[in-house]
Amino acid sequence: MSETNGTGGTGPRLRAVLDGIPTYKPGKPAAADGPVAYKLSSNENPYPPLPGVMERAVAAAGSFNRYPDMACSGLMSELAERFGIPMTHLATGTGSVGVAQSLLQITSGPGDEVIYAWRSFEAYPIITRISGATPVQVPLTEGDVHDLDAMAGAITDRTRLIFVCNPNNPTGTVVRRAELERFLDRVPSDVLVVLDEAYREFIRDPEVPDGLEIYRDRPNVAVLRTFSKAYGLAGLRVGFAVGHEPVAAALRKTAVPFGVSQLAQEAAVASLRAEDELWGRVGTLVCERTRVHEGLVGQGWTVPDSQANFVWLRLGERTVDFAAACERAGVVVRPFPGEGVRVTIGETEANDLFLRAAENFRKEHL
Ligand SMILES: Cc1ncc(COP(=O)(O)O)c(C=O)c1O
């Protein structure tokens, strides 16, 4: 007997909500044997693992026949100590995007609304729609910053979760303490606000608050952090959330069992113990960010101030051509067609190639 599924074909009936959800688009890799030499398309860290990480990871590899520590106890206690928070306020996951998916699972379903700025991290609409909830996208301001007033105005009695991406991916722009506090004061206490701080370590603006200070007095605020960016462990998939006990406990309950490998747990612990080197590398990338920003401004581009490990060029209809020109020059960047290009700060040589490509593009096209 044949059956009709949601798309009119035969086979198992899949959830209709999946129709039309775009697949997550990873940054394009650098070609292995072509002219392209550098990948600046995924906000990765150009450095190899921090000192001590490989040794610990290799030692963990000897136990691949065993399941990992499901509670991530070693990593949890290291995080608790490092950030001065109780273990009961922590939950880990397969990258911060894995934890973000759990945040939706614990708060939102069909009929509920999830608010976030747009453009922002491209996983938000995908994971929101997978949950069955309705995305409510609030455009960034003219200056490519979160419009917190408009976001507060978008709250209804159906709102369950709000993402605030600080700094925002892909624009690098930030919301500052006073405006964030004012916004949080307007959010009903039964709506969870998630401060996504994937790029926290790259912030140099003293007016940008640390989410870990904000969450303490606000039971409806949770903070997302990752080992993928500053810590350079994108390939190992480990991130975490910090929130009050009911939220963190619900996240631990819904996490994929054994999702964070032992390798990832050990590497994350070793990375937390290599603080001096971490801050050295982050400092170098921040200097490079300033150099790239100033270089672009010097060439005549308008570039929002970035507090992350990437810069944003609003290119509109020229976006795709610009990305192609960069690729020909040896750097793969991340185009958002019709909007702009996000360029990760990479190795000095990669940044140089990018600056040269941007300069040539200006001369030829603008
Ligand atoms: C704002 C933001 N949040 C979360 C993530 C997810 O990172 P991961 O899942 O590797 O921790 C990213 C990755 O690009 C991001 O840009």
UniProtKB/TrEMBL annotation:
The gene is hisC. The lineage of its organism: Bacteria, Bacillati, Actinomycetota, Actinomycetes, Kitasatosporales. Homodimer. Keywords: Aminotransferase, Pyridoxal phosphate, Transferase. The modification N6-(pyridoxal phosphate)lysine is found at K229. This is Aromatic amino acid aminotransferase. Gene3D superfamilies: Aspartate Aminotransferase, domain 1, Type I PLP-dependent aspartate aminotransferase-like (Major domain). Its cofactor is pyridoxal 5'-phosphate. The keyword Hydrolase does not apply. Its EC number is 2.6.1.57.
